[in-house]
Every structure is written in C-alpha cells, then in structure tokens.
Amino acid sequence: MSNLVIEVKGLTKYFGKRCVVDNLALHVERGQIYGFLGPNGSGKTTTIRMLCGLLTPDAGQGQCLGYNILTQSDQIKRQVGYMTQKFTLYEDLTIHENLDFVARIYGMSRRRVRVSQSLEQLGLTERANQLAGSLSGGWKQRLALAACLLHEPQLLLLDEPTAGVDPKARRDFWEQIHQLSAQGITTLVSTHYMDEAERCHRLAYLAYGNLLVNGTVQEVIDHSGLTVWTVMGDNLWKLQAQLKSLPGLEQVVPFGNLLHLIGQDTDLLQASIAPLMTNSPYEWQLSKPTLEDVFISLMGHAQDHSL
Amino acid sequence: MIKFSLFRWWAIVIKEFIQMRRDRLSFGMMVGIPLMQLILFGFAINSDPKHLPTAVLIANHSVFSRTLTHALENSGYFQLVKIAQNEEEVNRLLALGQVQFVLTIPNDFARQLIRKEHPVLLLEADATDPAATSNALGTLNILIQNVFDRDLVGHLQHLRGKPPAVELRIHRKYNPDGITQYNVVPGLMGVILTMTMIMITALAMTREKERGTMENLLATPARPLEVMLGKIIPYILIGYIQITIILLVSRFFFQVPMLGSLKLLYGIAILFIAANLSVGITFSTLAKNQLQAVQMAFFFFLPSLLLSGFMFPFRGMPHWAQNIGEVLPLTHFLRLVRGILLKGNGWEDSVPEIIPIVIFMTVVILLGVLRYRKTLD
Ligand SMILES: Nc1ncnc2c1ncn2[C@@H]1O[C@H](COP(=O)(O)OP(=O)(O)O)[C@@H](O)[C@H]1O
Ligand SMILES: [Mg+2]
After folding, report:
1. What residue's CA is closest to ligand 1, atom 9?
2. Of A63 and B65, which is predicted with more confidence?
3. Could you tell me if the CB of A38 is within 6 A of ligand 1?
C-alpha cells in the first residue's frame, strides 16, 4: 500500500441543486493528524461521510486505505473508526452494552477482554452499567471515541470530537490522538478550535464546499500573505467605528483589549491607517498573522465569493 | 381575566396550517382514511353475502334435482361450483373452505317424493362464521316449501302445499350452535398480531433514524439483511407470547373448541408473524420518522381488518375487494386458525393458505432490502 491513507480527487456532492462539496482533493499520509477546518455548513461532515461510504459522491474518485471509495465501502468500513458529530451510540443501552455491541458487530475475537480493557482505559469500569444517555457531554465523547477505537481501526475519522468538552478532557483527548499517531494510526479530525488546529500535522480549510488552503500550520500562515496590525489600548470601540470601510483593511477583529487589523495589501493598509496612527492614544504594532487571523480572513473572502 | 389575543391566536392558526400542508403524509391520511372507510364500508362490506359457493352431491338425477339446483342458483344466495362425487369429497370441500354449502340429493329421491315419503335433503353448511350463512339458510327454508310446485302437475298435484313434499335437514358444521365467539376469538389472534407486529417493527428502524444512531450503524460493516432480520427475531418471540395468551383465553374463557393440532398452529404462526414483521420493517425503511411509521402501519391495518373476513363475511364482498383481501396475510391466517381450531384441519389442508403468506412475505422483504439505504443519501 502506498503511504497515502486517503487519496481522493474531484470529490463532489450535491444536495438537491446545492453543491455542498465542490471538486475536493485530499491527500493524507499514514500516521498523520489531519485537521479539517471551516465554518458550519462548509461540508466537513459531508466529506467525512463520503470517505467512509455513508454518502455516495456525485463525482470524484479515490482510495481510502487502499480501497476504492466508490465500490469498496464495505472493506473501508471495517478498518475505519468513525466518530459522528452527534452522539450516536445507543442512549438506552449501558456503557458496557454499547461497547459490547460494537465489538460483536465487528466480529472481534477476545471480545470480553477487549471490552473490559477499553472500559478500564476509559476509567468507566465502575460505571459500566450506567445508561449511556445519562453521561455528561464530555463522557459521551470519550465513550464514543473508545467505541470507534475498539476494533483497532487504521484510520480515524473524527467529526468535531471535542465540541462542548472541557479543556482538561480536550487535552487528554489530543494526547491520545498523538499516541495513536505515533503507532501509525491516521486521523482526520474536524474542529473549530484554533489550539487544536495548531496540534495537527496538516490542515485543510474548507468554506462552502471549496478547499481554500491546505498545508502545515506554518505553510498556511506563510501562504496567506497577510499583514496584521495589532492595536492595544482602552476604548478600542471608538477606533473601531473610525476603521469602517478603509481601503486595504479587510477585517477588524477584537481580541479582548486588542484589535487585529488584517489586510492583504501591506502598503495600501499602511496608507489607510497612517492618519489614525498619528497622535493616537493607542499602541500600534505590526505583527505576524496568527492561524486565527488567516482563517478569519479566509472566511471573509469565501463569503464574498458566495454572494 | 386572561386576555385572548386575536393576533396571537391567528399566528398560531397560520402556523398550524403551514405545518399541516408541509406534512404531506398526515394530510394524505386525513383525506385518505375517511375515503378508504367510506369505500370499504359502503361498497365492499356486505353482511348479506350472496352467490356463496355451493357443491351438490346428486345420487339420484331427476327432474326434481334439476329444478332444485336451478332454484338454488336463482335465489341469488347459492352458486353451484362443483358436482361432488362422494362423501369424502364433500368433507374435503368444506374443510378447505372451497365451498360454503353442500347439498346432497339422496338415492331414491324422486321415487320417495312421488310416494309422499317426504325424502330428506341434506344441506351441510360451513358455519364457522354464522353471519355468512344465516340469510342463505333462511332463504332456502322458504324456497323449499314450494320449489317443486311446477313439477307436481297432473296426478301429482296433491303433493303441493303443506307439509312440503321434502324435508330439509341442515347440518351446521364446525360451529353447530352458531356461536359468534368461536369465529371472532380465533380471528382476533390474527388481528392482534397484525397490529402489534407491524407497529413495533415499523417504529424500530425509524427510531434509529430519528435518534441518529442509524449513522453509526451504517458506518459499521453490518449488512441490510443482517440488520432487518436481527430486528425481527425479538419480536417473533413477543408474537408467540401473544398467541399463547390468546389461546389460553379462548380455551378457558370462551370455551372455543380446539380440534386441530396446536403444534401445527404454532408452527404456521411463525410465517404469519414474520410476514407482518417484514411489512413493519419495510415501512420503517420508507418512513422518515416514527409518526409516519405509525401512520403507515395504520394504513395497512385498516384494510386488513375490514377485508380479511374478520369483521365481515369474506364472501359477502365484491370481487375486487376479495382480490385485495386475498393478498393480505391476515385473510389466510384467519382461515388457517379457524380451520385448525374449529375444523380440525391438518397440514395438508393448510398448505393452500400458507403459500400466499410465504409469497407475500418474500415480496415484502425483497422490497425492504431494496429500499434499505446503506447510505444516508
Ligand atoms: N442530508 C442532507 N440533506 C440536505 N442538505 C444537507 C444534508 N446534510 C448536510 N446538508 C447541508 O450541506 C451543507 C454542509 O453540511 P455539513 O457537511 O454538515 O457541514 P459542516 O460539517 O462543515 O458543518 C450544509 O449547508 C447542510 O445544511
Ligand atoms: Mg459537521
């Protein structure tokens, strides 16, 4: 098998007349943690579903774990661990019963041992007989992850696995993903959190079904070609009002008592804000764009395109 | 005082109308159910069944036997479908339900009649469903009084009038006392099974869809037939519990006779249960949510109830309604249960009713598997 665990191109999906995923190409290498970012409704879930055979693409081709995504979804399903965006284990089964069900469906050998090992790793041995529906959000996510790891898949497709989970649980979660990555298990994970995006080996940013950029965190930032001015001070809202519709200034993003002024054209931006900088009560500083700046800018552009 | 706001009230009215229009199936049901009931009750159901299939066993051909068979047909209640050759055939025809009546014209009939010996005409009736036969029997009783008047001419004229020249003896077979419960209680077994089996399985798969657990299930290697049959098994068990309860109540509460083999009944029941479950599962692959599933189940249940011969005598319905009825598993199961319990039918008598159930089930499961989506498209 080649070193590419996911290799698809031209992936396209329509819902009715709407194109939800448009001519998408994706390459993910073995052992990589690949971050999937983009605003709500940009087609992340749809793409993941097409990769594991839950949706049939309207166009496109490729392989996943060496199997054709169009014709061999049965084989793909056996080696993929898919964690859905919503909790989709059985709320009316207990934790143990859920894991046992999964183990049986995948026809696992040494089922009992592996289920109880999984419960132990989860730290849920004591609560194994509790209904899954009675777990809190964070625990549900952990259980779902444990369930999709149970059959020892080669590829994990995780759809917003940490949405609504507390920071400690999120850190534990990412530690586990990195451990799995070290064992050669590949992960495609969608997220809205910037700190999580920064923990991925590679990123792809999706908006309105289009893949806008992909690469390592550094590549994505460098490739953006953005200029960012950071403004510091009190009563920044007064300044914000003056910044409306200045040429070259594409986005103004408040971060607590900071403002990020983002633009593509360095000179034009500088010219526009120069008058404001003279005798300014604020502190102005030219800084490096963060990943978040890049994504906010990308999102702004994408919206313009979609209109 | 609670203030009633017309604006708010109107806002709700509008919203409800919009939602009602969007919910096509509910809307269709609201229109469809009364229509269906009107048609079924108005046209299909006739508690005065006519043209009931009748066989005759004629041991003595004469002008009288011809007159009699003509008169039977002219009455509108009897339709001659068979000339039986012997007693054995008579019994078989009745056991299989191929005829409702058999009229036997005995040896020596004509001579005895002429000699004023009041020969006996034997009419055997399948009285499992008393409602199906009562009017026909009443008519025959009147008809027999003067059916031969036209033939009794000349020196035979004195035979006319009272008492009638022949004696009519009626054998109500299988349910001699005409007890309605004997017919209804075994029938209820089929009705209850149809209703619960379809309803719970129709809900089973839609529940997965509605709760989102379907997505997880689809992402596993589980195959459609595995999922469908896996869901059917537990409910078969429930079906058997229902059968047992109904049989116990029938036996000890209504004293329904149980002439045939209960083993046979239990064995056959699995086919009927499975047929209904397959309908339920197939509905649930079609329904978008649990409400739709219930609506579909109801839509299937209503004709089953009305056209199977449970509510009204099957032979009282027009042909188109009988044809629909013949497709429904309940129709055949009713005949099977009544046959086994009341007539003591065995395996061979049951086969003709088993085959249509098996065909129905196969077609429906096939539809279900074809409709089952392995994807979320
Ligand atoms: N089954 C479906 N039918 C119709 N539209 C859908 C369906 N699933 C998703 N969509 C639409 O496709 C778009 C992309 O959805 P999704 O892939 O869930 O985005 P994301 O996961 O990035 O938030 C959304 O606008 C959503 O409304
Ligand atoms: Mg999503």
Report:
1. A46
2. A63
3. yes
Is residue B73 in a domain?
A: yes
Q: Is A45 in the pocket of ligand 1 (CB under 6 A)?
A: yes
For residue A169, give both structure tokens: 């649980």
Residue A60 covered by a domain: yes
State the ligand closest to the CA atom of A36: 1
Task: Determine, yes or no, domain membership for A177.
Answer: no
Does residue B27 contact residue B20 with C-beta atoms inside 8 Å? Answer: yes
pLDDT, tens digit (0-9, with 9 covering 90-100), for A42-89:
999 999 999 988 999 999 999 999 999 999 988 999 999 999 999 999
Asked if residues B128 and B343 have their Cβ atoms less than 8 Å apart, the reply is yes
Whether B135 and B187 map to the same domain: the answer is no
- How many residues are there in chain B? 377
pTM for the model stands at: 0.76
Evaluate: CB of A42 within 6 angstroms of ligand 1: yes
- The percentage of residues in chain B with a pLDDT greater than 70, rounded to a whole number, is 90
Angle, CA of B322, B325 and B331, to the nearest 5°: 120
Reported as a single tens digit per residue, the pLDDT across A120-159 is 988 889 999 999 999 988 899 899 999 999 999 999 999 9
Nearest to A54 by CA among B221, B208, B23: B221
Residue A249, domain extent: 227-288
Q: How many CB pairs under 8 A join A and B?
A: 46
Ligand minimally distant from the alpha carbon of residue A209: 1
Q: How far apart are CA A57 and CA B85, in angstroms?
A: 69
* ipTM score for this prediction: 0.83
Distance between Cα A41 and ligand 1 center (Å) = 5
Co-location of B184 and B154 in the same domain: no
Question: Is B373 part of the contact surface with chain A (CB cutoff 8 Å)?
Answer: no
Domain extent at residue B187 = 180-376
